[in-house]
Structures are given as C-alpha cells and as structure tokens.
C-alpha cells in the first residue's frame, strides 16, 4: 500500500470513529442533561471534522494526546451507565482510566458516582435585557445548554425597537457573527408572535425602554433571572428597577457593579451567593480573566504587589473614525490607533479576592482587534519562583484543580490572539511568555473578552438558579510541590 492510500485509510477510520460519537454526545445531553467535553472543549453540536479538530486542538494546546478510540469507548460506557445531570470531561476520564489499571466499567462507575443520584430540578427562566455582543453570545450558550430543558431556559430578550424590520435584524445578528462565526443550527422569526426561534427554542422579543414596567407573566415567564447587558445601571438602586416588573425574581449585571453590589467571579467567590442576593454583578471580562490566575499564584508564592496591563480589543463604545466622544481618547479611531484607557479591573480583583486588596494597580491599551485580549501581570512575590516550576504548577492547575473551568494553559511558539476566539476558559496562561527572576514574575494571560466572559456569566447564572452541574471527574487541590 502506498503512502497516499495509507493516509486515506487512516483518515477514513478516524472519521468513522468520530461519526459514531455524534449520536452518543447528543443523546447524553437530551436524555440525561450530561454535557461532555474534551479538556473543556464541548463536544455537543460538533460535526465529524469538528470532533477530529478538537482532538488535534487539545494536543496542540499542550494537553496529552487523546486517542479517538479511547474517547469513543468512554462515551459508549458513560451512555450505558446513564449518570444524571453533570459536566463530564471525557479526556480526563480517558487519562484516569489508563493510570488506574481498572476495568473501564468499574472505573467509570466509581468516578461518576456523584452524578448517579443527580435529579433534574425545576427549570429557571432567563431574560436577556439588551441584545448586543454579550447578549447574543449568552443566547447562543443558553440555547446550546437547553438539553432536556431542566436547567436555564432562555425565554425572552428586551430591546428598544430600532426599525420596522427590527425582529428580522435581531435574528440575523444572532445567526451571523463576524467574529464567532455562524450560529450552529437554525434561526427563524415568527413575526406575528414577535419571537425568534433558534433550534426550536422560542425567544420572546419584548420592546421596552423601561425595566420597571414589563409584565413578564403575560408571556408565561415567572421567577425569572434578568441579565442586564446594557450597562446603563450599575448599582443596586438602578438595577432594582427590574425587580419592579412582574415575573422577575433576581438580576445579574454583565459589567462591574458599583457601590455595595456583590461582584462575582465564578470559581473564586461564587460560593458566597445566597438566596437573599437578588441583585449581583458578574464583574468584568478582565477581572474574570486575571483573578483566578492571581489566586493560584498567591496561594503558591504569595503576592506582595503587582501591576496589570491589559492589551484589550476595541469595544463598541469607541468610534470607528475620529469623532466626538465624551470619554478621553475614545473619540479617536478604534481601528487605526492604540488607545490608552482606564481600567478598574486591578482594583476590582479585591472585591472577589479580598486578600489582594491594595496590592494591585492597572492600566489598559485598546488595540485594533475585534476580540481576544491579553493581560500582562507584573508581580512581586513573597517567595522566589523559577519559570519551569511556575509553569508546571499553572499547567496542573488548569488540568486538575477547582479553577479548571477558569484557567487554561498553552505552550506554543505559534499561537496568536485569534487562536483563542471561542475559548470557554476565563483566561489562558501563555507558558512560553512567562518571565521569572527570583521574586519578580511576568505572566501573559490571553482571554476571549466576549465568549470566555459569557461562559463565566452563564456559570454564575447556574449557581443563582441552583442548576450548576456536577463536574466530573472530581477536581482536587493542586499545590506547588505535588
């Protein structure tokens, strides 16, 4: 057999394995509310080539290679066992089984035990107030998470009418995105009912400019969590207007909260959320990206002080071309200039991680890219660090710790910002860029300031709704000298 034929046969064999995974992944989600991933990269909705690409991608990002046959075997076994609602990392199960030496069924039953008694709870209605960059990405994630319908249910969006064909335009923006690509599935409109229908999910479009006067119950929506994506109100007084509307139970702001408003970074202080917290903030994209990394470093080495410099993609509040803007410098063209801007992210870290209060300063530079940003952390540590030791620690944190949903790690001389579009993690440590000289360290942390942040927002929503899935395999504490 010549090389061409051998490569062709190998590719066809790999395709066949990937094809067999698709119905398993789909049925686990629909029937059991089980979300499957490969080192955090979701498998649901992927095509045959998409599954193959994910296997190649996790290896390229520095993870151990996962054989397709092993992935299929674990998926088949998980489907046969039938755990309850959970988030299951198939790659970690493959690795764990290989290291255990156990029979696969016995190993999986032990690892999946926390989800065996998991029962679906009552669904929670979600309303998106504002349908811009974050609002549409939240819609995509919530629709993909619909599963058996027992968790978060996207019921409505609230916007100001923009034109006569507003509904069609909103649907088109959900379907097509210049940065994140086409929506995976079908989007239609029901003009008579004023609804967008996405993959069978009917989303009521409500036109209003007053958050306090909407009767959500008229649309069958009750005890909803309203996610305010407008940023018009950022304190408790302003956001409490939503609670005056009929059918609203709680409010989540997708921006840094002001005053006494509790700012939540999932993985850091989400355990402080109580049923009495009716209004919360999900902090900022930058705060979500850097706080988990800072926590990990502080636990291992101790942080004396630090400065955070963010190289941030431009946002919709900047001008495309030079024009008047009430903010300093932001009137200059976002697509032609680097623009120095203020950021409160460094100070905001202390609202989620009080032990770093007063230790951090921060600044930002807006640059002509549409998405993905980079935080440069200049840190002075209590204990000296070596690059290899620090990187190994952060790599293990990203793979095994309780911060695994928040922190990713990459070692590649070729990655650039667009490689991180669509990352589910809050921040990705670039190991090759790490600098460590005794007690002085510089870390580079990439983050998708749109999609990665939106994933963090959904995790906070799940905690508020009591529907955050059991995460398996169980994560463990990772220390510097493991």
UniProtKB/TrEMBL annotation:
SUPFAM superfamilies the UniProt entry points to: Glyceraldehyde-3-phosphate dehydrogenase-like, C-terminal domain, NAD(P)-binding Rossmann-fold domains
UniProt xrefs under InterPro entries: GlycerAld/Erythrose_P_DH (IPR020831), GlycerAld_3-P_DH_AS (IPR020830), GlycerAld_3-P_DH_cat (IPR020829), GlycerAld_3-P_DH_NAD(P)-bd (IPR020828), NAD(P)-bd_dom_sf (IPR036291)
Coiled coil: none
GO terms of molecular function: NAD binding; oxidoreductase activity, acting on the aldehyde or oxo group of donors, NAD or NADP as acceptor
Assigned keywords, A-Z: Oxidoreductase
UniProt cross-references to SMART domains, sorted A to Z: Gp_dh_N
All residue ranges annotated as the Glyceraldehyde 3-phosphate dehydrogenase NAD(P) binding domain in the record: 124-285
NCBIfam families reported for this sequence: PRK08289.1
Family, as annotated: Belongs to the glyceraldehyde-3-phosphate dehydrogenase family.
Protein's name in the database: Glyceraldehyde-3-phosphate dehydrogenase
Organism: Microbacterium keratanolyticum
Organism ancestry: Bacteria, Bacillati, Actinomycetota, Actinomycetes, Micrococcales
